[in-house]
Amino acid sequence: MPAPDLNLLVTLDALLAEGSVARAAHRLRLSPSAMSRALARLRRATGDPLLVRAGRGLVPTPRALELRERVGGLVQDAEAVLRPAGKLNLERLIRTFTLRTRDGFAENFGPALIARVGAEAPGVRLRFLQKPDKDSAPLRDGTVDLETGVVGETTGPEVRAQALFRDRLIGVVRKGHALSKGRITPARYAVGRHIYVSRRGLDKGPIDEALVSFGLEREIVAIVGEFSTALALARASDLIASVPERHTGSLRAGMHSFPLPVATSEIAVSLLWHPRMDADPAHRWLRECVRQACAE
């Protein structure tokens, strides 16, 4: 069997990205006829039509959709290998980095991170996005540069992870709440009315499991998806919120916080990125900035 023509990968990437023979030809500076011949070779090599006519345009086949992400990554990796690594000039770096984080991260760690980035690379802009789930697709497709969160079963196996800090759940109530004075026992804690934070809408968690060993069950009257929502409700009522301590430091200003009277596991918060960004000097610099901001 003859060796495959790896130049076809670049052609396939352009065709799948543009969805047009003419636009792909223009992108690669080829003639439309040369691109048509390359498409014919790709069809023979893959055993699939890849792009089929629909009206005046072309639409990808299921096989083409399956290949699109893989081919794009292969071409990017090849370009990175063949591109000389220049010395990073932070003062002249113009770039926008997208960070996907849980509620509270930007409020707590953003000021230190933005200050450091601004001092070292004034042309860099940070875009913070809320993280509604643990899907690694945004890291794979490059729409997100970095994520913070807990590594779980749904985290892509190829995703790089480095520990940032460890956190723990604490209880939070408004100033003047009954739990703001005296010793907090499991019974005192459980008898109150609680807010539970769950992005997936669950109604029980580690705290409830820990209370079972004391023969107790807390009353959850509200389930919300974000820490800030839970704290806003607790601030304006007699409800009890249980949230990560370090993640919500600034969000808890003016409220009373206390250690939980039951044992729960610590939360390991990590920095996550796709391996194709490992060698990117600017990305490495940003990762170090995030680590330093969280260490402070």
CATH level-4 homologous superfamily of the largest domain? Periplasmic binding protein-like II
- Shape, principal axes of CA atoms: elongated
CATH class of the largest domain, named Alpha Beta
Tally of strands? 12
Taken as a percent bin, the fraction of beta residues is 15-25%
Low-pLDDT stretches = none
**Mean pLDDT, as a whole number?**
89
SS-based structural class?
alpha/beta
In words, what does this structure look like?
With about 300 residues, the protein is of the alpha/beta class. It has three domains: about 5-80, Winged helix-like DNA-binding domain superfamily/Winged helix DNA-binding domain (Arc Repressor Mutant, subunit A); about 90-160 and about 270-295, D-Maltodextrin-Binding Protein, domain 2, CATH 3.40.190; about 170-265, Periplasmic binding protein-like II (D-Maltodextrin-Binding Protein, domain 2). About 40% of the residues lie in helices and about 20% in strands. The chain has helices at about 5-20, 20-30, 30-45, 60-80, 105-120, 135-140, 185-190, 205-210, 225-235, 280-295, and strands spanning about 50-55, 55-60, 95-100, 125-130, 145-150, 160-165, 170-175, 195, 220-225, 240-245, 255-260, 265-275. A five-stranded mixed sheet has the order 4-3-5-12-6, with helices on one face. A hairpin with a 2-residue loop joins strand 1 (about 50-55) and strand 2. Helix 1 crosses helix 2 and helix 1 packs across helix 3 (about 30-45). The chain is elongated and about 80 Å long. The model has no long low-confidence stretch (mean pLDDT about 90).
